[in-house]
Amino acid sequence: MNKMIITAAITGSIHTPTMSDYLPITPDQIVEDAVGAWKAGAAIAHIHVRNPETGQPITDLNLFREVGAKIKKQCNLILCPTTGGGLGMTTEERVAQVPFLKPELASLNMGSLSIGIFKLAEKYDKFKFSWEPEYIKFTYDYSFPNTFKTLEVFSKAMLDAGTKPECEIYEVGMINHVAWLVERGLIKRPPHMQFVLGLFGGMPATAQNLVFLYDTAKRQFDDFTWSVAAAGKDQIRIGAMAMAMGGHVRVGLEDSLYAGKGIMAKSSAEQVEMVVRMANVLSIDVATPDEAREMLGLKGLDKVNY
Asked: Which domains does the chain have, with CATH numbers?
């Protein structure tokens, strides 16, 4: 099935409420943004949850279930909850939603790296909530830990839950980690990889790097599916390149707060609409959620626990 899958990453754990008035915080706001993205053409929603009062990223299983259940009542989106969680969370906190929700898809970060958002603190004189500046500056002396043991714990949890991993690739060497887990039978073939570009601490969002990642994966695997997620100003530009290469695309307020140069996005749907317009120009068909399920080999919405 030669169609493109669009993912909307709804709220994430990097952007804070001060950075955008439109960032979804409460469960109902996250649900509204996800359903709006589905209406615009997204097949997958990548889900984090936040403290409804302060907007701080948290791992609250009841909030995850509330968001999932409310979305499921309104549409057939594929939900991809995070196992990245928020800065400083433990492995146990990050993986807990997999056995609890038994989702069709879940993110699996394929290696450790330093993600530096500390520079963002310099852009703001005041913050809406007291936790924000400390949270942002925390990344000056922090590395996002994804050890081989962590990869094993996460992938085993997903295998037991019937959840397909979405392997997040921030550096080219992480493709070898995917191969290691496939060889051990902890990730079923064909793997699904997402090339994440443009974060401070990861690979820059360039055309050359995207081609390099794709070519490396192609040499490693006979069969795989792939998507691209580019941060900030590079979101749509690199997404367009992925479309031309036959890949899938992720957008959403987690990755960028803009819907054009200097234009704040009011929803993830606005970014999905931009991708759909480009797809129409390029004569690329956009996959529905059920078509995406078939393409990725997912277990189905009737087998989740929300």
From this structure: 6-303 (3.20.20.70)
